[in-house]
């Protein structure tokens, strides 16, 4: 039997959604440090108590917004890989292209790449980032490089992820982001081919 939400449940859900929407907009436009908890609740038309009840404050709200971006990115990358068809190589390149496209989007770039380490602290940022994207990257590398790669998989994944993140930031700042993205995909493909050849 389908559960019909009570008015209380609807109110809780709408309050949470209003805070998330407000946080996403303000953190993206102005950054975590420049937005106060008071501004957030005023813009959402809610009380400070609602913010603390649902998210335990501004940082908790930022973390929830961050996780929404990461979850969406993971789903989109997985969909790009699944939809690519062909062999593991083509699926892996499709995933890399999707990741670079997502990183170039203003919201993801601001929340995950630029604000995330500041707002969450380096350790928490890395923990959450790996939770959502770590297994995707490692699975892709295993498919491309084989079950026994020449270098330890966690180190290879860390090196590639670092390269992809820096490339994403460079793409977002490029005069022609689309061209820079295509060049970055070619560069990463060359790196992966080198790893396969070395192996």
List the helices and strands and how they pair.
Blueprint: H1 7-30, H2 37-44, H3 48-55, H4 58-84, H5 88-103, H6 106-120, H7 122-145, H8 153-173, H9 177-198
Helix residue percentage: over 70%
What is the tally of helical segments? 9
Alpha carbon gap, first and last residue: 55 Å
Question: Count the strands?
Answer: 0
**Uncertain runs with pLDDT below 50, 5 residues or more?**
none
Mean pLDDT reading: 90
Written description of the protein model:
The chain is built from 9 helices and no strands. It is an all-alpha fold. It starts with 6 loop residues before the first helix and ends with a helix.
What is this entry, summarized?
The mean pLDDT is 90.
Defining key terms:
9 helices; 0% strand; 199 residues; elongated; mainly alpha
